[in-house]
Amino acid sequence: MAKELHFSKTAKRHYMSAPTLSRVVQRMEEELDASLFERDNRKVKLTPEGKLFLDYAHEVLQSWQGLQRQLHPEQNNLTGEIRIFCSVTASYNFLPKVITEFRHQHPAVDFHITTGAASDALPILERGDADVVIAATPPKLDSHLSHKPLGEVPLKIIVPKGQKHQWRSLPLVMPDFGLAQTHLNDWLKRVGHNPGIYSTVSGHEALVSMVALGCGLSIAPEIIIEQSPVRDKVDMLDTLVQPESFVVGIFCKKRQLKSPLLDAFWKNNQ
Known about the structure:
Blueprint: H1 7-13, H2 18-32, E1 37-39, E2 44-46, H3 48-71, E3 80-86, H4 88-93, H5 95-105, E4 109-115, H6 121-127, E5 132-136, E6 145-153, E7 155-160, E8 172-175, H7 179-191, E9 197-201, H8 204-212, E10 218-221, H9 222-227, E11 234-236, E12 246-253, H10 260-268
Parallel strand pairs: 3-4, 3-5, 8-9
Antiparallel strand pairs: 1-2, 5-12, 6-12, 7-10, 7-11
């Protein structure tokens, strides 16, 4: 239910009627004395209490699986689900490195992969909507998070094709938030440039597209530029001062490593 946020679809998947599922949820809410879902005629979404309960339910399930393995050590196969969030680019540049060997060793473990904007990764981990995320490492990492680096990704300043020499006359296509915005602002200070902002854009791929359309100067990870379908419509600046690179890594909450499943996965990525 928490995945699909749809009573009819969830009920069908579990071979029950929607009213029956609704009564089950209602009984849970009565026992907890808290609303788990907000529902109206158009949509269903988790309440803050529902997100807390979902996080708790995942921990209980993982603890139960760990107890089963302790009671039956002869059954050495890990089972369960690991929820991973990453960007589309990370899914084919870093995800295979993270899961391939573990899947070979533990074929009964399921991976639920969700993709989205790279800047959303750590907030999604904090909300409990993923067990593991792949993201750029922030300047200051919260003490309750565990982190392992996967590699360095250079950031490049990009301009429309053929406008390298006019870059100081171009307006700015600004990332809406996140490390890319921080690194772009830092680069602008170091080169002594203060352009006007043409637009604010979410997502690295969209930044490349806006520059390819001739909208101005921006920043993006080199791997995204190289793999973009509009790569031939942008140029990367080769100035002496270059933006600071991303250090991409995997992250999880330290307390989740109490789960034998996540602990095994984490140790596999030493």
